[in-house]
Write a structure and sequence with these properties.
By secondary structure, the chain is an alpha+beta fold. It contains 9 helices and 13 strands. Strands 1, 2, 3, 4, 5, 6, 7, 8, 9, 10, 11, 12 and 13 form a 13-stranded mixed sheet that branches. The chain is globular, with a radius of gyration of 19 Å.
């Protein structure tokens, strides 16, 4: 029997399949990740079909003409080792031709990514704590982000990502199963934090701010707004000593590392102010 392998852009419903596969891999996606990620680039999700059966997925989200991010690189376990993953990987790379491409890969695959032209920038480390151990009501400088203009929030977020991605941020901040806070001092936004419900517990991301004390305050406030006795995950750049120190002060436990890699220059994305990464899947 002839095996016909085709690669095409996913439909919106098929993005749900990629999220389900990510959950099976233990990546613990958020409940509304599919919707939010799709807003970033509706053409950025590829599926590989063997005789019409979905066997491989990958995302190649393109932000403008200069930057792209690869994620959701998964082949169904029973179809691994047959070259199907390599073909969809090549399709993703081709879609982002000419862009600086980023990814958060599992550490064991670093050498393979290097062969495809990626260079290690730094590690991101996932920490786990418990909501009731982290919860704190916070300070008078905290506000709900919903009380601020989206323009003010977007302006604050710009230095933390290589390009603007307004559609994604609007979806991310509007999630039903999420809560967000800002640090507002004398009318100026100094910090932004979001916590969202995931398949297991909650994830905080982004967590962007000027100083460790503000990050600590936001974590406490966010964790006080969710169900207690639940795991909470925070992804921090391991090269940000202040962020690592804060996670350890809060008795959060490292769960795993990823390798943040790029094909061109490492973008200046304010790592020293990044206390929590938004997403390993789309940057």
């Amino acid at each position: 029997m002839n095996q016909e392998y085709t690669i095409r852009t996913m439909t919106r419903d098929e993005v749900n399949l990629a999220i389900d596969w990510a959950a099976q891999e233990g990546w613990n996606p958020g409940l509304e990740d599919a919707h939010c990620y799709y807003q970033a680039d509706p053409q950025g999700f590829l599926i590989g079909l063997l005789n019409d059966e979905p066997v491989a997925v990958i995302s190649a989200v393109k932000y403008g003409s200069s930057f792209g991010f690869i994620g959701f690189y998964i082949v169904k376990p029973e179809y691994r080792g047959q070259g199907l993953g390599l073909k969809i990987w090549q399709a993703a790379i081709a879609r982002l031709e000419g862009c600086n491409i980023g990814l958060d890969g599992v550490v064991e695959q670093q050498e393979n990514y290097k062969k495809s032209g990626f260079a290690l920038a730094y590690a991101n480390r996932r920490y786990q704590g418990m909501s009731h151990m982290l919860a704190d009501q916070g300070s008078e400088n905290l506000v709900d982000l919903s009380s601020l203009s989206i323009e003010a929030i977007e302006q604050f977020l710009m230095p933390f990502f290589p390009v603007q991605r307004a559609e994604f941020w609007r979806a991310w901040l509007a999630q039903k199963n999420a809560s967000s806070v800002g640090v507002l001092i004398d009318g100026t936004l100094h910090g932004v934090g979001v916590i969202r419900q995931c398949r297991e517990g909650y994830k905080i991301g982004p967590l962007f701010t000027n100083e460790q004390a503000q990050a600590h305050t936001m974590i406490g406030a966010l964790c006080s707004r969710v169900a207690q006795g639940e795991p909470v995950f925070l992804d921090v750049p391991a090269c940000n000593a202040e962020a690592v120190d804060l996670a350890e002060k809060l008795n959060m436990i490292p769960v795993f590392d990823t390798a943040r890699m790029y094909t061109q220059t490492f973008p200046d994305i304010q790592i020293e102010r990044t206390f929590g990464v938004t997403s390993f899947e789309i940057g």
